[in-house]
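Write out this protein's structure.
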Amino acid sequence: MGKSITVRELLKKKGKNLGLKVICCRESLDSRKITVSELNRPGLAVTGYLENFRSERIQIIGKGEYSYCQIESQSKIKKNLSQMLSFQDVPCVIVTGAMKPPTVLVQTCKKFKLPLLETKLETSSFIRELTIFLDDKLAPMITLHGVLVNVYGLGVLIQGDPGIGKSECAIELLKRGHILISDDIVEVKRRMGQILIGKSPDTIRKFMEVRGIGIIDVELLFGVGAIMDQSVIEMQVFLQSTAGMDMSKYDRTGLEESSISILETSVPSLKIPVTPGRNLAVLIEIAALNQRLKNQGYFAVKKLNEELIRRMKVK
């Protein structure tokens, strides 16, 4: 079951900032739940057209809907509003732009015990602010084991076999000027646009566990600039032990691109074999820079392959 918040929780957490005021049906604030971050401008529904009406969304009454309610016959508006607001999954109705809610709208909301709210904010500003808030609160979330660092502006999720040295690799990256987001546990949310945001649980933020040393405070050791609250996850690096493995099976060209799925979102993935003498921090730096080039449409291996084919054709 997906996340949800009640209309009362919305008022408690964002009501003051959004200038929200309850007009009627305060008793239903706990029973009406908000399950999606998208909002709905019910222009067509107010006119009586309910095909594809998104009843699960908060219904926003702006100037367009308000004007129609003023010029159309009240009997027709009452009928249309009754059809529109009879859906049990409608969370609430919000009138924007400091407009006084039409009497027929107040009556209909009372009929269906549906919370009616108003705000002085203009429709576009209100929708933007509320959508950002709901997107954060209702975003799907998962907890992953690993280390999240920001390398050259690219969020890199380091995972791997137990005891492989993920935290030690992150410390080396910190010494080289990169930034830690979370060690050991990474909370990941999927935001609008299939964007994955990783952050640290509040209890362990800025702390790291290093085998043989114990818990360290990254902020005190490396400075306040060594930590970030959150980062977009744009790449995953898996540190893999080579014990008993055939090293010839590893891709040496990069022609085979791989990815993993996190919250149904594809993330470029790279496996790095861990062997004595390899500087993993430097390899991750190079991998991050190479991924940035790929994000811009430049693939070094494809460029080399095209050049080789061109030269063979010439010969």
